[in-house]
Amino acid sequence: MVVGFVSAGLLTLSQAIGVIMGANIGTTMTAWIISIFGFKADISALAVPLMTVGVILSMSKKDKLRNISELIMGFCLLFLGLSLMKGSVPNLSETPQVLEFITKWSGHGFASVLLFLVFGTVLTLILQSSSATVALTLVFLDMGWLKFDMAAAMVLGENIGTTITANIAAAVGNTNARRAALAHTVFNVFGVLWVLTIFHPFVSFIQWIISQMGVDEATSMVYGISMLHTVFNIINTFIMIWFTKLIEKIVTSVIKDKEDTEPYSDGRIKYIDYGLISTPELALVESSKEVIRFGKVMNNALAYLEDAITYADNEDRFPGYREKLVKYEEISDNLEYEIVNFLNDLGKNHLSDDSKALVRSQIRICGELESLGDSGESISRSLLKMKAFGRVLSPEHVAKLCKMIGYVSQAYEDMIWNLENADKIRDIRNAETAEADINAYRDECRDMELKEIDTKGDAYFETVFYLNILEQLEKMGDYLINISQSIRIRE
């Protein structure tokens, strides 16, 4: 989740490092829950009845009750899994060869500590959950498979292995998301290194704490691992929290910003992360950023449109601008497909009414932005067709069309501003004014041209192309006002 927050821009990298430190402490509570409730009694006997309650609550229309149902079912599955693990581990008295094998690997002093540390790391890499691996370690300890110091080494390894989850989540994220995942790795690896330097005194310290609690010997072993997990993360956090900025510098130097010399050179998405579909509210933040970027992509194409009109009769320069407009039309098609496909997948989840409205709004906006790409390519095609007929726009027509593009450019700026400030705007008068200016100038140019049409003579065909391009530019204004009107739907 933290990786997702950073990728969406909801957390800075420095803030994310702080949250990760807190999460490392918070995750140790699972070990305590298992230690306290999982070994003294067979909680799994209550799991099935509680699961029934959870299923019933999950059918409620109230979000709060559905959330409670997930909480209940989560704990039921936790204790059912623990019961299955305990039942699957054979008794060592019945399998002496296993006891001999474990004793062999446990008798090499500090080398054994490193061996079990690696084992804990690899096991967590496979399971991708430190909580699950800690639970397994507690079962091994309770069944007598491990000595306390070897179980402690496994727990340290599990703190390294758990960082793989964040790194997998960040693999498809942006630069800051990958930095946050790497910060998690740096934090945990550093902690394990300093504990290894004082491993035996640290383990003795934990055992002394448990001895002061006055619990029986069997329970003290399980409590000891939970205590070690918690104390390790608390001390590590209190050490590393003073070096947050240093960690930030380290991960920033390792994972450098990508140079984006031509950010709109293709139609690939930049912010959307399919891993966030399970958290729709966060995913909508990402898709909103992608929609804003889509708007900026199409605004970037407008400059090429003006150049194409200005140099329509230039055999050397026009083909290049025409090619750019065709490319941007393809980019708009691909961006619309990617974003709308993501939003459709998102819509299959349970969404609030506000989120559903936002999904509909973004889908409509993408359709309008794609139409803007079509318009630019269509105008370039009209210019190409005009050249095929041996016609060219007069300097006066070019000047008027360029002025019209200026009005459209203002409408673009207003549209993008509205997209970026969608959560706080109260009206779209800026967009309405820009649309009115486009319509007024279109009417002015058209009326003036029609008044003079009788005197055009052979230039009549040029007038037809000119008016057609003028109408297409006005149509772009319609798409732009439609986008701002879609934003207003969110309020």
Structural description of this entry:
It is a single chain. The chain is mainly α and 491 residues long. The protein has 20 helices and no strands. It has helices at residues 2-8, 13-26, 28-37, 44-58, 63-88, 96-105, 110-127, 130-142, 148-161, 163-170, 175-197, 199-211, 217-240, 244-254, 280-310, 318-346, 353-388, 395-420, 429-451, 460-488. The longest helix is centred in the last third of the chain and has 36 residues, at 353-388.
Number of strands: 0
Global Rg: 32 Å
* Class from secondary-structure proportions: mainly alpha
The sequence of SSEs as H and E is HHHHHHHHHHHHHHHHHHHH
Low-pLDDT regions: none
Mean pLDDT: 82
- Percent of residues in helices comes to over 70%
Given the structure, what is the number of helices? 20
Biggest sheet features: none
% residues in beta strands: under 5%
Distance between the termini: 27 Å
Index terms:
491 residues, 20 helices, mainly alpha, 0% strand
Structure in a nutshell:
By secondary structure, the chain is mainly α. The chain contains 20 helices and no strands. Helix 1 packs antiparallel against helix 2 and helix 19 runs antiparallel to helix 20 (460-488).
